[in-house]
Write a structure and sequence with these properties.
This protein has two domains: about 120 residues, Fructose-1,6-Bisphosphatase, subunit A, domain 1 (Fructose-1,6-Bisphosphatase, Chain A, domain 1); about 120 residues, D-Maltodextrin-Binding Protein, domain 2, CATH 3.40.190. Helix 1 packs antiparallel against helix 2, helix 4 crosses helix 7 and helix 5 runs parallel beside helix 6. The chain is built from seven helices and ten strands. Helix content is about 40%, strand content about 20%. The structure holds adenosine-3'-5'-diphosphate and magnesium ion. Adenosine-3'-5'-diphosphate (A3P) binds next to strand 2. This is 3'(2'),5-bisphosphonucleoside 3'(2')-phosphohydrolase.
Amino acid sequence: MTDTTDADIARELARLAAQRLIEIRAENPELDGKALKDLGDQGAQAVLAERLATLAPGDAVLSEEAADSDARLGAERVWIIDPLDGTREFSEGRDDWAVHIALQIGDELTLGAVALGGPDEILVSTDAGVDTARGAAESDGPIRIAVSRSRPPELVEHVSASLGAELVPMGSAGVKICSVVRGETDAYVHGGGQYEWDSAAPVAVARAAGLHTSRLDGSDLVYNQPNPYLPDLVVCRPEIRDDVMTAIRAAL
Ligand SMILES: Nc1ncnc2c1ncn2[C@@H]1O[C@H](COP(=O)(O)O)[C@@H](OP(=O)(O)O)[C@H]1O
Ligand SMILES: [Mg+2]
């Protein structure tokens, strides 16, 4: 199977799940809070599980919404998926949520597709143009750091203060990483907890766009590990990497 075909599968999976999520919200106007979160998580997971079984039979899957299995550790091909990232924002009727579809082959995160707030806006790491998207929206003002709107890590306040940066709150790790890809922000800094599915797909897109991606200590983000807990990361424009990493070191 070629990368192109895998990218087509990833895009299609992201599109179908995002479409389903839009339908779920429209069909259940009386629901809010936990009930809508659960319906969204389960509905998107069901679509993805069904389509993966058809489009990529034999591949292993690591999903936020499915039981984990050791089988993925010995598998050559592993789809790392978050059927609904930004669950809280989805349940509040906002559009800062995403569907994450990544493919790990062997030791390598080979591609990612991220649907942003619905089926019409999908970033795929293999698309021409991903690498030039951020150029259009460069800013001369202060560095803009995307940060969780519901639980901003304290560390980011320190990083922001030492860089003289502006914080831009939004939901979903995928939305935040893609905001850097699209030049709407300059960095995403996160610490304190997250899992592989929260970052794999958008990190693949960010790498394809030429952005810096790493753990807060500068080490590589590594996927398909026995424990999928991957609690911190930084994604930023390469031009500001040294300043951002210096500020993070001082804040840790
Ligand atoms: N401290 C933490 N521990 C575990 N997961 C966290 C976390 N902070 C953020 N996340 C996860 O990262 C995603 C983005 O969060 P945020 O919008 O606050 O930045 C959310 O994924 P889900 O919506 O898939 O649960 C959230 O659960
Ligand atoms: Mg998530």
